[in-house]
């Protein structure tokens, strides 16, 4: 495994675009630090994130994993480009000629995907721990490491998303088309759901909650369900919601049934990637 990782690392680090995007990704993650200094007003409400308990343990695990997730597109571009380059530069064929099996090739890509996800998770953990120890009102050991399952959810979410990108890169071969398909699939899941539920079926059936359950099994939706938005848990936003008559009934927990669904997609994407490489004439 060390040999496979070394091969992939050399490919990525010698590619200037991949190197710049990877560095940019981790630089952007550090911007979470600047949340502590953000202050603004909404009508009569003055919002200071540090004073609102955003950096309190264990809430900080939820907030930072949710925010960090927005930057994953940078590494998605790296992964898709990584596969496009394999075909464009002929390195895939050369690796196979040099004795690398197709199974080892896919394993090397999965190791890279997992490494990106793990490194990002550790990075978010360190940033969150520093901010929490500085700003949190609660620093007891038991409180600090409660709700740490958000980091597990974040790791699995990134691994699944990057595995999806890897699969698209192998399937389409060209990075622009692969990213275009990823965007198309995102639109499909988000647009087809309200149309199907409220426009098509909503006129015929009073109870269409089973549509929610079906969509919970789709890849991007299941990944999204791992970490629910945390903004409505912040006290100032709860106050605003109460004043305008909105009732918050969200479940913010990390559900292991959702983790199981996402892990299933990780397996599906990687086996599908292997099947394509195995059957395709390279």
Task: Briefly characterize the structure.
The protein is mostly helical.
Radius of gyration: 21 Å
Secondary structure: helix percent: 55-70%
Give the class from helix and strand content and strand pairing. mainly alpha
**Subunit organisation of the chains:** single chain
Low-confidence stretches: none
Distance between the termini: 24 Å
Can you put this structure into words, describing what you see?
With 282 residues, the protein is mostly helical. It has one domain (2-279). 70% of the residues lie in helices and 3% in strands. It has 13 helices and 2 strands. It has helices spanning 2-14, 16-29, 59-68, 72-88, 91-97, 102-135, 141-144, 149-172, 175-200, 209-215, 219-226, 235-243, 256-279; strands spanning 39-42, 45-48. Strands 1-2 form a two-stranded antiparallel ribbon. Strand 1 (39-42) and strand 2 (45-48) form a beta hairpin. The longest helix has 34 residues, at 102-135. The chain starts with a helix and ends with a helix.
């Amino acid at each position: 495994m060390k040999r496979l990782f070394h091969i992939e690392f050399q490919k990525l680090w010698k590619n200037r675009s991949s190197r710049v995007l990877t560095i940019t990704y981790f630089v952007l993650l550090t911007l979470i630090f600047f949340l502590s200094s953000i202050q603004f007003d909404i009508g009569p409400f003055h919002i200071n994130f540090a004073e609102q308990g955003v950096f309190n343990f264990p809430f900080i695990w939820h907030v930072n994993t949710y925010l960090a997730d927005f930057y994953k597109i940078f590494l998605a571009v790296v992964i898709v480009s990584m596969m496009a380059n394999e075909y464009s530069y002929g390195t895939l064929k050369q690796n196979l000629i040099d004795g690398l099996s197709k199974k080892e090739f896919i394993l090397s890509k999965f190791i890279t995907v997992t490494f990106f996800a793990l490194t990002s998770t550790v990075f978010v953990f360190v940033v969150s721990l520093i901010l929490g120890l500085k700003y949190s009102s609660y620093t007891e050991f038991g409180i600090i490491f409660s709700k740490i399952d958000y980091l597990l959810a974040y790791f699995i979410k990134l691994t699944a998303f990057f595995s999806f990108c890897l699969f698209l890169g192998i399937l389409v071969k060209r990075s622009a088309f692969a990213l275009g398909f990823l965007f198309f699939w995102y639109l499909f899941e988000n647009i087809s759901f309200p149309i199907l539920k409220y426009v098509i079926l909503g006129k015929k059936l009073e109870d269409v909650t089973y549509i929610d359950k079906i969509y919970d099994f789709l890849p991007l939706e299941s990944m999204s369900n791992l970490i629910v938005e945390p903004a409505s848990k912040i006290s100032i936003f709860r106050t605003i919601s109460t004043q305008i008559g909105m009732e918050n009934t969200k479940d913010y927990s990390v559900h292991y049934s959702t983790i199981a669904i996402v892990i299933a997609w990780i397996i599906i994407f990687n086996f599908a990637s292997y099947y394509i490489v195995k059957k395709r004439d390279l």
